[in-house]
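for the record, two folds in this file. i put them one after another cuz i was lazy. first one right below, seq on top, structure tokens after. the second one comes after a little note so u can tell where it starts
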Amino acid sequence: MARNQTSAQKRFRQSEVRRMHNKAIKSECHTYVRQFIEAVHAKDSKLAQEKLVLLSSKLDSARSKGVLKRNAVSRKKSRMQKLFNVTFAAAN
């Protein structure tokens, strides 16, 4: 049975660390999305606005780190903004 080269072993370790780091960032983004949606369903426009700002910031941060792709971030931000506008349009 062939043994992995030292460089291949190092590559595996590096990719595993990166995978866990990226997973943590994605999970954090999912958490902010969930919190925003909960605020919208609770009809709390002030809290929802705060959560939307935080969510946009986290998505942009994930984009700059290369965890999420540009169009995916744009799509998510657009959908969240649309949800906010539709829900709270009658209140304004």
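(here's the note) second protein begins now
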Amino acid sequence: MEIINLGIQIVPKSKTQESYSLVDKAIEVIQDSGVKFEVTPFETVMEGPQEQLMAIAMEAQNAVFNAGAEEVLIYYRIHIRKDSNVTIDEKTDKYRNK
């Protein structure tokens, strides 16, 4: 099973809840999943098997609804290769302070 990157941006809409607190619920699901991830100002990027990451994305969506969102916009970006893995580190290690 190939390793991919899945970027997910969740934009909740609620008349009663603050959007950052709703997004935090989605990020908690990702944190608790055990997959490698990085939170950025615009999206969270996960690394792992595609099927697992899509299941986590659905859980994150449900967490936002369960926390009070009436509507959610979700944007996915997937980087996948036919015969090899895609990792976060290959893309970002050269930019990290060492």
